[in-house]
Design goal:
6-stranded mixed β-sheet; two-stranded antiparallel ribbon; alpha/beta; 6 helices
């Protein structure tokens, strides 16, 4: 059986009762099979807890996916951020969704300071070509997004983490003017990320 594409998103966490990365991951998972020519797609929505890494993410990584596209929300971000690296650090200030605080300030005591993704620059270019005003980021934070990314980059498949901003809160006027239908920003982002995922798979099947 062909090696799958793994797409991950996150569930709720304190302050974010509805995590948009989960919906985006599922939408990409629905679009990707049309682009991948028989490559299976697995969507994994992780609980926003440190326990989810060994309990859910590591078993999925053990299945040797062809590529990994990881999604999370950055609550203060204004634009989509392509994470260049995962860093070997965490914070003891912010509890996860279960109330647990990280037990130490490093994720892997014997690990490197950071792990970089060679796929970041090509992915950034792909998003921009699709009309997404994405920017590179060298800091994925000190929370579960960074922790999961640092772990995924330990293995061989191409892995990439994309942070998305919270969707704006909009109020529809009582009588909205009739306008031509346009592709919603969320759908445009999903299609752009699907192309990123396809290119990740091509890279993975080519050996890096």
């Amino acid at each position: 059986m062909p090696r799958p594409l793994l797409i991950t998103g996150f569930g709720p966490f304190p302050g974010v009762p509805r995590n948009p990365s989960a919906a985006l991951a599922r939408r990409i998972g629905a679009l990707a099979p049309l682009k991948l020519g028989g490559i299976p797609v697995r969507v994994l929505i992780l609980r926003t807890t440190y326990a989810a890494i060994p309990e859910r993410l590591e078993p999925a990584l053990a299945e040797a996916p062809a590529a990994i596209l990881m999604l999370g929300v950055a609550t203060r971000a204004k634009r989509v951020r392509v994470e260049v690296q995962g860093r070997n650090r965490t914070s003891r200030l912010f509890p996860d969704a279960s109330g647990r605080i990280a037990s130490r300030l490093t994720l892997e005591p014997d690990g490197p300071p950071a792990r970089r993704s060679p796929a970041a620059a090509p992915a950034l270019a792909t998003l921009r070509r699709h009309g997404i005003a994405a920017i590179p980021s060298r800091d994925a934070g000190r929370y579960l997004c960074n922790a999961s990314y640092f772990r995924a980059l330990r293995d061989a498949p191409p892995a990439l983490f994309v942070h998305i901003p919270l969707p704006p809160r909009t109020q529809r006027p009582a009588k909205a003017p009739v306008r031509p239908r346009r592709e919603a920003p969320g759908e445009r982002l999903a299609r752009a990320c699907t192309e990123v995922a396809r290119r990740l798979v091509v890279r993975g099947l080519a050996g890096g």
